[in-house]
Specification:
Rossmann fold, about 20% strand, about 280 residues, eight-stranded mixed β-sheet, globular
């Protein structure tokens, strides 16, 4: 009965993309926010961004929605909208202050994730982007299990070039294989920094073992792209603005646009394959 309820609620969601990372601090939430902005740039598409990073909900800040609250209607919780075609849901909207700590055990976290999927009235959605916490724990198992009642196109895994990060990403890839979660590909974030004055490139996080590219070759996973460091990304996130709109000519923006296009192509292909099977 529970699976049927979730399936019914998520029936109007066409594509679902999970954003994962092996460790914290690699820019996963930033990527989730910019992926949602990039997809919503097409005004014909309806995009939803669900933040299940329950202990560290940074999406409200990045989307410029701090202080907003969730409203209940007859059809469920209403998402908070950034644009007419971009809705957001996060535990951050349920806290009395952004500084409040969420001190919950696993079952309570799982209950909230289920509630988000069952009770939020997204309406017709082309893309549901799910920002997850780092690692391979309760929240990940729950979201994969609950969304299994509907459909997941796949996961995008975010890493930085150094071996310390790649080590945890290999665990994340292993997790995806074990729970039969398709992997759309890997994004190498903070991949080099080009000085705006002298134009020299520096490797802030040196890829000592060949970076994400070598890892993807070894594990037979797609590398979606490399996003260079740009200080403007951090400034835009702090202001709750879309970096893609604020710096359209930045090499990082061009890289993001290519990655987003590849994710869209994968989702469309995945959808058409599923329709053939059905």
């Amino acid at each position: 009965a529970e699976a049927a309820e979730l399936r019914e609620r998520l029936r109007a969601v066409r594509h679902t993309v999970l954003v994962l990372s092996g460790k914290g601090g690699v820019g996963k939430s930033t990527f989730s926010a910019l992926l949602a902005h990039g997809l919503a740039a097409d005004e014909t598409k309806q995009v939803a961004l669900l933040d299940i990073d329950i202990c560290g909900p940074s999406i409200p800040k990045m989307m410029g929605l701090e202080g907003e609250q969730v409203h209940q209607s007859g059809s469920g919780w209403s998402p908070v909208y950034v644009e007419e075609n971009l809705g957001v849901m996060s535990v951050g909207f349920l806290l009395s202050s952004p500084d409040d700590a969420v001190i919950w055990r696993g079952p309570k976290k799982n209950g909230l994730i289920k509630q988000f999927l069952r009770d939020v009235d997204w309406g017709e959605v082309d893309y549901l982007v799910v920002d997850t916490p780092p690692g391979t724990s309760d929240e990940h198992l729950s979201i994969v299990q609950y969304l299994g009642a509907a459909r997941i196109d796949g996961a995008v895994i975010v890493t930085t070039p150094q071996e310390v990060s790649l080590q945890d990403v290999r665990k994340e890839i292993n997790f995806c294989h074990k729970v039969k979660l398709p992997i759309i590909g890997v994004v190498e974030n903070m991949s080099g920094f080009v000085c705006p004055k002298c134009r020299n490139e520096s490797q802030i996080f040196p890829p000592t073992t060949g970076g994400a590219e070598k890892m993807c070759q070894n594990l037979n996973v797609s590398l979606l792209g490399k996003v260079p460091l740009d200080p403007q990304i951090g400034r835009s996130c702090d202001r709750g603005q879309s970096f893609l709109a604020e710096a359209p000519e930045s090499p990082a923006t061009l890289s993001y646009r290519n990655i987003i296009q590849r994710i869209q192509e994968y989702c469309e292909q995945h959808h058409s394959q599923e329709e053939k099977i059905m």
